[in-house]
Protein: GNAT family N-acetyltransferase
Organism: Pseudoduganella aquatica
Amino acid sequence: MKQNVIVVSDNTDPEFEKAIGKGLDEFNLQTSGLSDRRPLCVMVRDPDTNEILGGIVGRTSLGLAFLDLFHLPDSLRGSGLGTKILQAFEDEARERGCRSAVLYTISFQAPGFYKKNGWRSFGEIESDIEGVSRIFMTKKLY
């Protein structure tokens, strides 16, 4: 019998992601009767150039919103734009039927920003770097 080949890579392959997503969706549908995993992105574009300046990359699935990546350049921070982007993410998640959201941030990134916006910490994992940890946060959306 032939052995399956295991490949470890740091490159994202759309075909690979599609195959994994399809398998996961089929399993979720078979197990729970629901397969509703969808990307959820909120983008900020420059009004003159249409260049993407920042935003959120996340997803929704089975009533839960996952905020995976959130970035704004320094020049756009402190203006309230971050809160508006986060609110747009949360509002769309609610529209999709999500009752809760989850994320992790790094201790030197934005835990205070999320707390100010109603998120609460539910766990923390220290890294090998002194004083740096991953902070896991959640928010009820109903």
Summary: Residues 14-32 form the longest helix (19 residues). The beta strands are 38-45, 52-61, 64-71, 100-106, 120-126, 133-140.
